Amino acid sequence: MEIFRELWFAKRKVSDNETKKNMTREEKFEIYYQSFKSIYKDAYSDDEIVEKVNWFLDKHETLPKTKESITVRYYDFLIDINDIEKFREDLNKVQIELGHYNKEGDVHQAFELPDISVIINNPIVLGVAANLATELIKTVYRKIRGKKIKQIQGSKETVKDVAFEVEIKESKNKKSQFRIKGELTDEQIDKLIDKIPEISSKNNSREVQNITDSTKRYKLNEDKSDWEEYDLLEQIRMARERQKN
Predict the structure, then answer these.
(1) Chain centroid to CA 52: how far?
(2) What is the full DSSP assignment across 193-219?
């Protein structure tokens, strides 16, 4: 886990430098390599460090390079990325970049992270490519509908529905997240996804009151006909209570 943390800090350094110029892979490699080696030179051989850094760079090569973009974060055992790639040509026509990231092999500690997510990196995407964006989201959901995934917590293993999330980054300090779990009909998913651009637009115009207000989170209501806002901290508290019982 420390390995990924160190690589993450190096990634931030690369991102900062990329705002100044377009870095080559060799330049990125050097930053990651030096950062990793300074901490783990006694734990890994030079060849192992090179292998891990190249693995990390390869995984991030498919991420979008611009803000006017859509990112799909996925596990390759849940979805065939070719089902996403078919949207690339039409998105390119309206200057929207499509990127993706295979999460296989990543280490996650955050509470209830989505298994599959579609991230709209700039609200302008919903302005110039709303139909393409919502159709891509619907396609991803239909490909994972009904699928299950194993979840391991300590020594306990459970099987759960795949968690799917749509995230809209409205600005540097505002975003909206829409979580879907369970099976929906085509009619239900069409209506729910079509509502996302309007909700996001309203959130984009609001004033952020404090740090806890920066992200608006939504889940399905009881009859799965609409979105309802929820409090993540309260969800975490309830989950911990369930684990005690």
Answers:
(1) 22
(2) HHHHHHHHHHHHTSPP-SGGGSEEEEE
Distance CA 120, CA 128 (A): 12
Residues whose CB falls within 8 Å of the CB of residue 151, separated by 6 or more in sequence, listed in order: 157, 158, 159, 160
Q: Are 137 and 166 in contact (CB under 8 A)?
A: yes
At residue 135, the pLDDT reads: 97
The predicted-structure confidence for 7-29, as pLDDT tens digits, reads as follows 555 555 555 555 445 778 888 88
Q: Give the per-residue pLDDT at 20.
A: 41
Q: Note the pLDDT tens digit of each residue in 94-113.
A: 999 999 999 887 765 555 68
Amino acid at 58: D
Token couple for 209: 């009151």
Query: Contact at 8 Å (CB) between 136 and 87?
Result: yes
Cα 230–236–242 angle (5° rounding)? 115
Q: What is the spatial distance between Cα 31 and Cα 53, in angstroms, rounded to a whole number? A: 10
Domain extent listing, the chain: 2-60, 69-244
Q: Are 49 and 112 in contact (CB under 8 A)?
A: no
Q: Give the 3-state secondary structure of residue 63.
A: coil
Question: pTM, whole model, 2 decimals?
Answer: 0.79
Residue 227 in 3-state DSSP?
Answer: strand
Q: What is the end-to-end Cα distance of the chain in Å, rounded? A: 29
Element at 245 (helix H, strand E)? none
Q: How far is CA 131 from the centre of its chain?
A: 20
